[in-house]
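A quick aside before the break. I want you to see a complete sequence-to-structure record at least once, exactly as it would be stored in a machine-readable document. Don't worry about memorizing anything.
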Amino acid sequence: MLVAACDADRDARVTRPELDTCLARSFAGAEGSTTGKIGYIAYADWSLKWLGDRNALPSPFEVDRDGDNAITLAELQARFAQFFLRFDRNRDGVLVREELLTIRSFAPNAPPRGKRR
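That is the input. The structure line, written in tokens, reads:
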């Protein structure tokens, strides 16, 4: 949802520059961001506001690439760049809604197919 919300020119397409700018704007509002880094608690607050849940992915552990227990804008943008590449199925450098939709073939809490409780 965050990626789709980064469509600055409202053309129903998200480019990497739009995503990077959007992440920078959201990061700037995080507590402690004026130091250039936010801690894991501030990241959880950012995640709640921008991703919808304190425990939403990506986790701070996967964003914090240097393991210093703080997240920089560059680390956040790098992680979302990986998502961008994964979502961009046709590799045209633009994400459209079709590429951002994920349809599950099973209920989130259902046991795996073929296994019974």
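Two observations worth writing down. DSSP finds six helices and four strands in the chain. Residues 1 and 69 are 26 Å apart (CA to CA). We'll return to this after the break.
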